[in-house]
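seq as requested:
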Amino acid sequence: MGRVTGKVALVTGAAAGQGEAEARLLAKEGAWVIATDINDAAVRAVVASINAERPGAALAMRHDVASAEDWARVVKEGRDAFGPITILVNNAGILASAPYNLVSYEHWRKTMDVNAWSQFAGMQAVIPQMTEAGVGAIVNIASLAVVNACGRFSAYTASKGAVDAMSRAAAVELAPLNIRVNSVNPGVIHTAMVDEGFPDQASLAAAAAAQPLGRMGRPIDVAYLVLYLASDESWFTTGTAQVIDGGASVAAGGMQAVMER
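C-alpha cells:
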C-alpha cells in the first residue's frame, strides 16, 4: 500500500471488469476512490467490498458518463466526501459492434457520446479541482483498435481514435497546469465486453490463441498500468498512448481474422 496514498481518484465504469480492478487497486494503494457506473447496484457492491477491507476508502455513485450534468454532480459530491480530485480514470465505454452498412446515426451518436464525449466532459469537470490542487493525472482508456483496426467496429474504432487524439491535445494544453494526460490501448482483455464481442467459446479460444503470448489479458493487468500512470512514478510521462496487448500490435495480422469472425 502507498503508491497513491492520499490522492483522490475518480474511476468510471467501476462496476465490473477493468474499472472494478482499477478502483480496487487504487484503493489498495492508498487513494480515496470515487467509483461510478450506470449500474448503481453493481458499483455499490464493489464499493462495499473495498470498504470492507479499508473502511471509508471508497464512495459509489450512479453515473451517466454521457451527461455533463451528471459529471458536475459526481465531481461535486466526490469533492465534498474526499477533497479535490487529482486522479481521473476515464474507463467507462461500450463496444457497439455493427457491420459498416448497418451503422445508423443513432448507433454512431450513442457510441461517440459514451466512449468519447464522456471522457472530454470528465476532463472538463475535474480540471478546476486539479488546478486548485496544483497537480493532476488523467488516464483515458482507449483501445488497441486505435492501432489495429478491424471490421464490425466502425463507430467504436472512431470513438477510441477520438480518445487518442483528444488525450494528446489535452496533454499539451494542460501541461502548464501540472496536469498529465495519458491514454491506454488495451488489447483483448477478458471482461464482459470481450464476451459480448466473442459470443461463443470457439471465438474466445481463437482470440486467445491469436495473441503472441497465447492468452488474453486480465483486468488487473490494465489496472497496474493505470496505477503507474496515476502515480507520481510517471511524473515525467504525459501525452503517451500506452499499449497493453500481449504483443498483438506487433504481430502480423492475426487479430483481423479473429475479430471478423
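The longest strand covers residues 179-186.
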